[in-house]
Amino acid sequence: VVIAEKADLWWSKDPVHDRLCKQRFADALVAARGGELDEWADSARARLALIILLDQISRSLHRDSAEAFAGDDRARSLAAGGIERRQDRDLRYCERVFFYLPFMHSENLNDQEQSVGLYRGLLAAAPSSLEEQFSGNLDYAIAHRDLIQRFGCFPHRNAVLGRESSAEELAYLAEPAAGF
After folding, report:
1. Domain segments of the chain: what residues?
2. CA nearest neighbour of 172 among 153, 160, 155, 149
3. Which residues contact 168 (CB under 8 A, 6 or more apart)?
């Protein structure tokens, strides 16, 4: 399935989707965080499933709480290891979007630069029929990187992570399209 067909499933806040994720994946997420699914990293698709659990599913299960980000470091490590092993090359283009997300979700500028490079490479490698979709992914990667360059963090996470927002961050958060 091309990502554009399921965009709302992945990129919008939907309490029904969040509940469904909780019912289906809560135990798997606990197992993944506890290292019980580490053998999944041996194959590209299973590694991708582990990355999605720790990165995307965690956000749905624990929306609006610090726990949403508890799997980020592990997801990024899995993505980096998979890239090093070239496992991302074994995946379809639309699957690579999710494989690379942990870099886009990082509050580290080096990870953000890597994210932009990965999505730029994905756009260059993908068939022209997918250019619009992957151009949008690159735009999001750039927007995430630009926020980290500007603030050093994602201001929309400050409240749930117990961080105080600066005046500049508060002004940004008051903008209509702030956050992701």
Report:
1. 3-173
2. 155
3. 151
pLDDT per residue over 39-64, tens digit each?
999 999 999 999 999 999 999 899 89
- Residue 57 is which amino acid? I
| Beta carbons within 10 angstroms of residue 157's beta carbon | 16
We find that the CATH architecture of domain 3-173 is: Alpha Horseshoe (1.25)
CA 85 remoteness from chain centre = 20
Residue by residue, DSSP assigns 78-122 as HHHHHHHTTGGGGS-HHHHHHHHHHHHT-S-HHHHHHHHHHHHHH
Q: Does residue 129 contact residue 38 with C-beta atoms inside 8 Å? A: no
DSSP annotation string for 16-44: HHHHHHHHHHHHHHHHHHTTTTGGGGGSH
C-alpha closest to that of 11 among 121, 78, 126, 97: 97
Is 44:88 a contact under the CB 8 Å cutoff? Answer: yes
pLDDT, tens digit, 9 for 90 and up, residues 86-132 = 999 999 999 999 999 999 999 999 999 999 999 999 999 999 988 88
